[in-house]
DNA sequence: GTCAAGACGGCACGTGCCGTGCCGTATGCT
DNA sequence: AGCATACGGCACGGCACGTGCCGTCTTGAC
């Protein structure tokens, strides 16, 4: 996994190949194939293992501030080369390898979703959220715009941008009475 | 482009290769390479050309209903095999080919964004949106959650889901007064 | 009407990486 | 001590890449 990450950082995920990984690791190709069925899953494993300390959401009593903290931390990680492009490549791989998509969901998205929902649950209990707000959608609504910017328009995501997204979401879009 | 789409629909984008496209089109490989520098851009061109009638947003006076109409139309297209997986592959390709990312933005995302912003502009002028709502974020906030579901969690996107997203966004998340 | 320039289809080549098979060695378990 | 297993190293066939070359056909200028 270390060899895979090194090579990916040096020449990008596109140039990454198992032959080189095996060579760099001083290992036969068989040994790699014995553990990972594909380049995609090896890369997924490498990337998630190294950043395993999943970003937790603090609880200071203010949902928006807490979400902001967590999101900014994630954004900072992705903005710090070479992690941004590598995560983009990972998501890209997930688009044509169902196994990578499944792994990404189970090992990264789902835990993150559960933490987000849990934090929103507390907020709702404290009256900081509309009582009928659909928590299951929370993750998609909060993360979606940022993933969109990161993956689709591929503009840089700044803290200011995070603020504006959170503002727009929490202020609502309808005119206030 | 027709040959490329046929082959992609038959065996998926992953198996698509320029050699086969040239053969299917009854054409030399040079002729393909002369027009498209890469498989990704050929695919982008093929996919967008065939669906060029970009989905317009109607204006019945009710923003939410109009957005719902347009989004559901897009969702229906993506839910209709084989377009969903093909668009996923296209976005995937954009993650490691900057040229594809740029083309996707210029030819698909930007026009769509402009239409969305224009429609929101009207809505704001009619008082259906908060006067300080950040229209530039509109596209990301409206599309983001759906792209997230489509690309990341890869769950099916139903009309009901679209409704719930729009509800959550327009109802706001804060408790109402 | 002629002719040069360019685009074309067809074919072959060298290259890179795939995934797998085989061999001889080393390690670890009983 | 003996055996099974994992290993590193190597070689292979296969595929698609991108690029030459060749002979033909179309096109446009004069």
Rg estimate of chain A, integer Å: 19 Å
Q: Which descriptor suits the 3D outline of chain A?
A: elongated
Described by strand count, sense and barrel closure, the largest sheet of chain A is: none
Count of beta strands of chain A: 0
Return the string of H and E elements of chain A. HHHHHHHHH
In helices, the fraction of residues of chain A equals over 70%
Q: What is the terminal-to-terminal distance of chain A?
A: 56 Å
Biggest interface and its residues per chain? A-B, 51 and 51 residues
Uncertain parts of chain A: none
Give a quick set of tags describing it.
homodimer, mainly alpha, 9 helices, 72% helix, DNA-binding
Describe this structure in words.
The structure is a homodimer of 177-residue chains. Chain A is mainly alpha-helical. In chain A, helix 4 (39-50) runs antiparallel to helix 6 (83-96). The first copy, chain A, is built from nine helices and no strands. Chain A is elongated, with a radius of gyration of 19 Å. Chain A has helices at 2-11, 18-25, 29-35, 39-50, 63-79, 83-96, 98-125, 135-153, 159-171. The model of chain A has no long low-confidence stretch (mean pLDDT 94). Helix content of chain A is 72%, strand content 0%. Chains A and B meet through helix 6, helix 7, helix 8 and helix 9 of A and helix 6, helix 7, helix 8 and helix 9 of B. The structure holds a DNA duplex (30 and 30 nucleotides).
